[in-house]
Amino acid sequence: MTGYGAGQAVHEGVLVKIELRSVNHRFFDPSIRLSRDFQGLEGRVKDALKQRVARGRVSATIDIGAESESTRLVLDAELANEYRTLFQSLEETHGFPLQTDAVTFAQLPDLVRRESRELPEEAVEKALDSALEVAVEQLAEMRRQEGEALGRDLSQRLQRLDGLLDSIEQAAAGAAEKVRDRIMDRVTKLVPDGLQVDPDRIAQEVALLADRADIVEELVRFRAHNDAFRAFLQKGEPVGKRLDFLLQEMNREVNTIGSKSSEAGIAHLVVEVKEEIERLREQVQNIE
């Protein structure tokens, strides 16, 4: 499911900003962008995301820094000593009267540099956890709302399947009589006049063909899958993979129904059922 979440937190001068985005994916696939200095925190972020996201490609952009741009000037003491030694050598060897003040001396190349203060590790982790909690909660809420909308759509499609199964059941009613009529019609056309046909033999063939065309068991199992699908939609936990499995079973049952029946009306209904199953499958890919 798609979603967005953002969080920001400050702890002991450490500022953390987080943006989360999720798109549909069959598995949990996190992508985390952190500066090189904080790569060690990637596992911490993944664990926090995995607790709330079971399926989906989640991208996290994380910015960690000081709350205020507080830097300090640092003197390179070793380089300063080298400059002093060089100046003394010039004065002693070449007689140059080298006199300078502190300000001029500090302007020498690379002698003074600006350095950001180091961020405390514990403060970084606490600020990160706080920002993550806010961002993940926003992401989960947006995904929850989308999930509710998907659930309503799936429920409507299940009702459509129920209606199609009822139509198939009605079309299959009297299958044995229809088989008997077809056999008798064929016998009448093929058997020469005056030749008697064993009625017991015809009854046996009718019973055999009717048994092969019986789809009651498939319809019962299909309806059971529908009921299980509805029950899973009511659960407050990830059910996407279970729904995907049920759709595979539904598809198997409707294929059997199609192969058993020779009625044109049932064949058309089977095609409609398959179309609804495919629409359900597309939607289920978006569900945790």
Please characterize this protein's 3D structure.
- By secondary structure, this protein is an alpha+beta fold.
- The protein folds into three domains: 83 residues, Ribosomal Protein S5, domain 2 (2-Layer Sandwich), CATH 3.30.230; 46 residues, no CATH class; 143 residues.
- The chain contains nine helices and six strands, in the order E-E-E-H-E-E-H-H-E-H-H-H-H-H-H.
- The strands form two sheets. It has a four-stranded mixed β-sheet, with helices on one face. It has a two-stranded antiparallel sheet with strand order 5-6.
- The chain starts with a strand and ends with a helix.
Primary descriptors:
61% helix, two-stranded antiparallel sheet, Ribosomal Protein S5, domain 2, 4-stranded mixed beta sheet, 288 residues, alpha+beta
Mean pLDDT: 82
Work out the helicity level: 55-70%
* Rg over CA atoms: 38 Å
Number of helices: 9
Helix/strand/pairing class, anyone?
alpha+beta
Q: Summarize the main sheet.
A: 4 strands, mixed
SSE order, as H and E? EEEHEEHHEHHHHHH
When the domains are counted, the total is 3
Record field, number of beta strands: 6
Biggest sheet, strands in spatial order?
1-2-4-3
Report the sheet-strand fraction.
15-25%
How far the N terminus sits from the C terminus, by CA atoms, comes to 7 Å
Poorly predicted ranges (pLDDT <50, ≥5 residues)? none
Task: Give the CA-based shape.
Answer: rod-shaped
Q: What secondary-structure arrangement, pairings included, does this model have?
A:
Layout: E1 3-11, E2 14-23, E3 28-33, H1 42-50, E4 56-66, E5 71-75, H2 77-94, H3 102-106, E6 112-116, H4 121-172, H5 175-190, H6 199-213, H7 216-233, H8 240-260, H9 264-284
Parallel strand pairs: 3-4
Antiparallel strand pairs: 1-2, 2-4, 5-6
Helix pairs in contact: 4-7, 4-9, 5-6, 7-8, 8-9
